[in-house]
Amino acid sequence: MRILVTGGAGFIGSAVTRLLVLERGASVLVVDKLTYAGDRRNLRDCEGRPGFSFLQADICDRARMAAAMAEFRPDAVMHLAAESHVDRSITGAADFIRTNIDGTFSMLEAARGYHAGLDAEAKARFRFHHISTDEVFGSLGPTGAFSETTAYDPRSPYSASKAASDHLVRAWHETYGLPVLVTNCSNNYGPYHFPEKLIPLVILNALEGKPLPVYGDGSNIRDWLHVEDHARALVTVVERGRIGETYCIGGRAERRNLQVVETICDLLDARRPMGTPRRGLIRFVTDRPGHDARYAIDCTKMESELGWRQQQSFESGIAQTIDWYLANEWWWRPLREQKYSGERLGLITQK
Ligand code: NAD
């Protein structure tokens, strides 16, 4: 398979690219602008491998996207490039509107032109897979879970921009017959997660004995999925998903934010004792505006229709992730020193 992956230098896109190149032997063209969140080092295991190539480009540049498709001739586009951090969307939404909405429009138009020019066999094979988030569904009460039929109710600039992009993708299917797939996934964690996000921020602040600020009272609930399980789910969908369908992907691992932070403290105390327990570093800070109370995903369709199962429990996945950060200071140290210190916002952040 030949796959064009947008946002492949980011957290999830690089996990997808590693899986495709190293395990599936696919040919992959990564298209990435290399914003603050993109990092070529995330792809170091793929560099130089047969079939791997990289194009630094902005997805909003439609002519460039069309040319990249015409030259690379993908069987599928996996579209992950996005502005992805909710807190940044609250302080400045413009990049989110541009990349997540205009950028998706640009990718859809480039794909539509490319698809129209394919011969019948290639046309039947082609698919445009749009990768989205469960945040488009809004906030849950104490019970229930999001599924493929949940109505959209985005509440942050980030989730609103992702919701808009989901709608565009479905419209391009209904109106123009573009063969699309949409996935909505819960919170990811794992290796190469940019240190502004909740789990890496807490691991690194806790490692360095810095305060661990927790929004509100820490009771907000997220459903956590290891990034490699998400990558496997995405490759399953692009290979076997039914055109025009949406698939919800989740970890069946609901945890309160405070629980997540305490778990990290305890695991780090066991690995690198500090003298006093790290739970003492926790500080409760003013809540994020419009902070969604609870997310949970019902991933029955992924399991029953496509046979996907997550392989990592939250407990094993979080321990593995902590060990990865302990072993890979070469990766995070420059990011902490040059891009995000973990102190700038003074907040705990998610997604
Ligand atoms: P990320 O911020 O780590 O990576 C985004 C990548 O997109 C970066 O490499 C960045 O350089 C690139 N990019 C940004 N703007 C671009 C542009 N205009 N042109 C080309 N490249 C550009 O994000 P992530 O966490 O890996 O998320 C990837 C996708 O998955 C996003 O669409 C996000 O909405 C979705 N998602 C994320 C999560 C999560 O928990 N992180 C959960 C569900 C869905």
UniProtKB/TrEMBL annotation:
Catalytic activity from the UniProt record: dTDP-alpha-D-glucose = dTDP-4-dehydro-6-deoxy-alpha-D-glucose + H2O
Cofactor: NAD(+)
Residue span, NAD(P)-binding domain: 4-321
GO molecular function: dTDP-glucose 4,6-dehydratase activity
EC number, as in UniProt: 4.2.1.46
Record keywords: Lyase, NAD
Entry's family note: Belongs to the NAD(P)-dependent epimerase/dehydratase family. dTDP-glucose dehydratase subfamily.
Protein name, as recorded: dTDP-glucose 4,6-dehydratase
Originating organism: Paracraurococcus lichenis
